[in-house]
């Protein structure tokens, strides 16, 4: 089972606190500042497609990719009523293949932390670079090492009328891996409950590591800020946002 397969049907209800519109506003401002006019956008690891749909509503032609078929099913239902729905593709990040170039690429809500192997991260960055037009932007966020270390030993509860989710988190400092053990209980029509279990892992990538791999992939103009701001990251920052560009004249 892929990460989020069991959670897919309940994911949106369990993440109502995520400020998707605020993040879409931030991304739109970044697109407007791009030297290359942004019309076509890749959403890498799009999940249930909320961000892709919000940007599609604003007139962007969206290509949305995810490794979970169940999450993409939810995304397709969500997008069905849109005048210009995103194109959804079932692909893992390291095997990204679009067949066309895009003006910008995004990856939100710590998707790249799920790439726990260095080889997979580097290959993903190379492939994003490959499918960006010269001058195109790549914007992504990650959970910081500071945040993932603090999650060690924590228990989180999410509850709706028909679902109950328990997240237990453990951090392994030697491997820099935060493991989420997820128990999901869903209410059936007959009053019984189904239980599903998933295990998720996120890698605590350092800022210098990410900057190095972006440069190796060919990106330039790499900047890092705090979450949804233009200021440099604070020492105790939960989320970094990376903004980089494929050079107009790629090497």
Automatic annotation (TrEMBL):
One Pfam family from the record: Methyltransf_25
GO molecular function: methyltransferase activity
InterPro entries noted in UniProt: Methyltransf_25 (IPR041698), SAM-dependent_MTases_sf (IPR029063)
Location of the Methyltransferase domain: 41-136
SUPFAM superfamilies: S-adenosyl-L-methionine-dependent methyltransferases
Tree of life domain: Bacteria
Keyword annotations of the record: Methyltransferase, Transferase
One biological process term in Gene Ontology: methylation
UniProt-listed PANTHER family: TRANS-ACONITATE 2-METHYLTRANSFERASE, TRANS-ACONITATE 2-METHYLTRANSFERASE-RELATED
Listed name of the protein: Class I SAM-dependent methyltransferase
Source species taxonomy: Bacteria, Bacillati, Bacillota, Clostridia, Eubacteriales
């Amino acid at each position: 089972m892929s990460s989020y397969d069991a959670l897919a049907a309940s994911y949106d209800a369990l993440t109502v606190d995520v400020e998707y519109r605020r993040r879409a506003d931030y991304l739109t401002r970044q697109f407007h500042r791009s030297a290359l006019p942004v019309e076509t956008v890749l959403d890498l690891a799009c999940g249930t497609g909320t961000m892709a749909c919000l940007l599609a509503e604003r007139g962007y032609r969206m290509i949305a990719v995810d490794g979970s078929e169940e999450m993409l099913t939810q995304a397709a239902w969500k997008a069905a009523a849109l005048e210009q729905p995103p194109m959804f593709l079932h692909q893992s990040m390291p095997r990204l293949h679009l067949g066309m170039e895009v003006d910008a690429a995004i990856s939100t809500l710590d998707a790249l932390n799920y790439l726990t192997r260095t080889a997979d991260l580097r290959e993903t960055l190379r492939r994003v670079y490959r499918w960006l037009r010269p001058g195109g932007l790549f914007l992504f966020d990650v959970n910081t090492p500071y945040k993932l270390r603090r999650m060690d030993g924590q228990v989180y509860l999410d509850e709706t009328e028909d679902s109950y989710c328990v997240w237990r988190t453990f951090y392994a400092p030697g491997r820099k891996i935060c493991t989420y053990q997820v128990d999901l209980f869903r209410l059936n029509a007959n009053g019984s409950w189904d239980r599903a279990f998933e295990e998720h892992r996120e890698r605590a990538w350092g800022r210098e590591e990410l900057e190095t791999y972006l440069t190796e992939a060919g990106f330039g103009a790499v900047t890092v800020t705090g979450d949804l701001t233009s200021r440099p990251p604070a020492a105790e920052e939960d989320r970094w946002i990376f903004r980089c560009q494929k050079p107009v004249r790629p090497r």
